[in-house]
Amino acid sequence: MSTPTFPVTKNKNPQLAHFNMDEIAFGKNFTDHMFVADYENGVWKNVEIKPYSPITLDPSSAVLHYGQTIFEGIKAFKNDKGEFVIFRPDQNLIRFNTSATRMEMPAVPEWLFIEGMKQLIHLEKDWIPTKPDSSLYIRPFMIATDPYLGVRPSLTYKFMIILGPSGPYFSAPMKILIEQKYTRATPGGVGFAKNGGNYGASLHPVELAKKKGFDQILWTDANEHKYVEEVGVMNVMFVIDGKVITPSLERGTVLKGVTRDSSIILLREMGYVVEERNLSVEEIVTAHKKGLFQEIFGVGTAAVVSMVKQLAHEDYIMDFDIDKMVIAKALKQELHEIRMGMKEDKHHWMVKI
Ligand code: COI
Predict the structure, then answer these.
(1) Best of 170, 233, 234 to mutate for ligand 1, by most ligand atoms within 8 A of CB?
(2) Quick check: pTM over 0.70?
(3) DSSP secondary structure string for all residues of 102-154
């Protein structure tokens, strides 16, 4: 199929000139245009780029009642050579369609997902921030739009891409509590998918942890609360006795993070041993008691590489000196240099717009 050129309706009231690129938060500001497509009778139609604006939904739309909605998070950068680049969008497309299958939604083809994103970003390229630790955050998502209250897969869907200049998701090193009561995912469930409900269900336990002074929770397995899984907005990596350990994906309860995958590849290339396996809370606490637990950090699209300064298991508190985090910092720098074009992109991760 030849590359389509999507129709564009220009925003008559663009906000770019009024936006302060020095004050960028995560997920608060959006660019002047959005990409929209509708699915009906097995085909994608009404594909267009139009001014960013609220959308109209029937109050009985399936997404509002039964949570048939999925999303992705991707980043675009202006690199040091002045090129506009997206980080591994092909991987997000694969995961998006894996989520779609699990949520009984239609697959979104590459010509919509990748081409839509490229043409939208091309139009919005002046919104890409260049401040350190900032980027253009890309949020593709799909919602079920059937006006019907019966519990069955919708027959109609809306796929959209919105963009926003974004700063770091976590602006400071985090304090994390190991969750011992609530659960995020079960084998056979939807933990591996990026469906809205996974995130909605995490809000109450995270708020309870915040009341105790923590920023986030580290989820543990649903059966025994014995093995650590992920933080919910990011995957997690531990450095124990010089080795990097990250929870494995095999139970289907951990999101297959694109930054997680990239980090494993880069860390191995940097000479570190990386193990993907079950990691128990007991092993973590024992390693800490022996002085072998050296670093803990999160990896994710929004989070990039985020340092953790404290991890708590019930009353047992493990503190970390951020200044001594060698591996987390080296990984962050390596990712930064690849994204900025300062280092050879030997895996062809950066897609030019
Ligand atoms: C991302 O890292 O892009 C995510 O999807 C996490 C998000 C819920 C902020």
Answers:
(1) 233
(2) yes
(3) HTT-PPPPHHHHHHHHHHHHHHTGGG---STT-EEEEEEEEEE--B--SSS--
